[in-house]
Amino acid sequence: MTAHCVGLLTGTGLDYKRRVAMTEMTVEKIIKATGGELLMEGAKTFSGVSIDTRTIKGGDLFFAIRGERFDGHDFLEDALAKGAGAVVDTKPGTLPQGKVLINVGDTLRSLQDLAHYLREERDIPVVAVTGSNGKTTTKEMLYRILSGKYKTLKNDGNLNNHIGLPLSLMKLDPADEMIVLEMGMNAAGEIRRLCEIARPSHGVITNVGAAHLGMLGSYEAVRDAKLEIVDGLSVAVVNADDRFLIQGFSEISDFKGRVITFALKKINHDDGLLNADVTAGDLKATDKGSDFLIEIAGKGAIHVSLKVHGLFNIYNALAASAVSFSLGMEMEDIKAGLEDYSAFPMRFEITEINGITIINDSYNANLSSTRESLLELLRLGSGGRKVAVLGDMLELGVFTDDSHREIGRTIVDMGIDVFIAVGEKMGLAAGECINSRGVHKFPDVYCFNDSEHAGREISGIVQQMDTVLIKGSRSMTMEKIIKDMTDAV
Question: Residue 272: pLDDT above 50?
Fold first, then answer.
């Protein structure tokens, strides 16, 4: 059986396309970008980059990345049999004939350096998008707007970290006129490193919330990590309704770029009234999503009909509009791009199954995003019961127990009719609900160990006319519950 280089990215929570096509690149350019040593000559150019022997193709350059559980060097023979060459940081005992072999000090760093080299060759706008929630949606909305007028490169899905982002940049084509990159992080310094690689000209911070709170230790540390994106920007786009973010941004005394703010309303700060540059008003929920007016200071207003639900998606649309405006896009271009956007799978998808409205928000969860989704459940639910099916929120560290108990109190305060808790930690939220039996209104509570158990039982709990929110951290596989509901019809 042939071995494959897989599992290098275990623990990242990302689903990688581990091979990307690129414009033909010469060996000479790769040596210059990485500072590597040419051990063996072969092909003069490469047509793609791969970090996984399952996807490698002829003409590809293989980077032998060292991961948490696997080492790409263990699969070098297979990579060279399929591809045209490899970048290694350990010299093999036998040099392959007719295949390029480049030796570097660190293969991951070399992958990043090559991506940086390609970016530096092009004098075009690069937009970086970060934030605790809404990164992917904002990036995709922005891409829809910009690509209507310019050839635009984006990172697919959420390829947004130290491996996914450079792989995305490898696809840069000479015809590309704009780049839009989502940037994620788990620790301090990671956004700064991604910015060193991509050197963005424009940056967006959607918000600061509880994502990665357990890893960073405090909301202030999360904010500081997000604000790493600001260094070197010509234009910074920030959420003016996020007072905590604005306070942190105001403490950056040496930022010389242009600041553009977006908001739903005016905010009174201690230092006076802040008027946002890009705002949304006249908000209306529709069967398909949301209708609202986007107003850009000095440019007028335009009506937008989004095909996605949720107040948070209006914020994402405002962020994308603010960046587009800074890049010279017209109001009609912004409207067309936003109205062309449709929801990503498992990100607040709304469907109907046997008379039950299902809100599939199962892609991921943290404290702030769960609160927002519960608010949308209240806003969308009509006629029947409002049912919250919530799985454990992970990566909260020492805040885990308190955060889940807070969700339980929130469910009671909001008047949710039925709460189905999935997982050990969400059981703490269920306990808060049960302890509230003395209040005027409290939910019916059900507890299950995992999504499989919940999926088997849920059809006996929900009923026609219910509106059901399903949400949890990625590893809780909450989407299984929806499949079970569909199969039961």
Answer: no
CA separation for the pair 468, 221 (Å, rounded): 34
In terms of Cα–Cα distance, which of 176, 162, 149 is closest to 22? 176
Name the residue among 309, 346, 356 with its Cα closest to residue 472: 346
Give, for 282, the enclosing helix (H) or strand (E).
strand 278-285
CATH architecture, domain 19-105: 3-Layer(aba) Sandwich (3.40)
Pairing state of beta strands 126-130 and 202-205?
Answer: parallel
Measured distance CA(212)–CA(134) in Å, rounded: 14
Q: How far apart are CA 120 and CA 417, in angstroms?
A: 55
| pLDDT surpassing 90 at residue 1 | no
Separation between Cα atoms, residue 338 and residue 290, nearest integer Å: 11
Classify the phi-psi angles of 125: left when phi > 0, otherwise alpha if psi is within -120 to 50, otherwise beta. Answer: beta
For 59-134, list the strands marked E by DSSP.
60-63, 85-88, 100-103, 126-130
Q: Which CATH number fits domain 349-488: 3.90.190.20, 2.40.50.100, 3.20.20.370, 3.40.50.150?
A: 3.90.190.20
Report residue 58: phi and psi, to 5°.
-60, 135
Residue-wise pLDDT for 77-116, tens only, equals 999 999 999 999 999 988 888 999 999 999 999 999 999 9
Neighbouring CB atoms inside 10 A of 123's CB total 6
Q: What percent of the chain stands above pLDDT 70? A: 92
Output the CA angle 38-106-10, nearest 5 degrees.
Answer: 125
Per-residue pLDDT averaged across 116-141, rounded?
Answer: 95
pLDDT band per the 50, 70, 90 thresholds, residue 439? low
Domain extents in the chain: 19-105, 122-340, 349-488
Per-residue model confidence (pLDDT) at position 157: 75
- Cα 341 from Cα 324, distance rounded (Å): 15
Q: What is the mean pLDDT of the chain?
A: 90
- Tokens describing residue 342: 């449709």
Q: Residues 91, 38: contact at Cβ < 8 Å?
A: no
Position 409: which residue type? Answer: R
CA-wise closest residue to 74 among 18, 13, 7: 7
Determine the average pLDDT of the residues in 298-312.
93
Instruction: List alpha helices for 20-69, DSSP H.
Output: 27-34
| Pick from 6-20, 78-92, 383-397, 442-456: least confident | 6-20
| Topology of the domain comprising 122-340 | UDP-N-acetylmuramoyl-L-alanine:D-glutamate ligase (3.40.1190)
Q: Which helix (H) or strand (E) holds 182?
A: strand 178-182
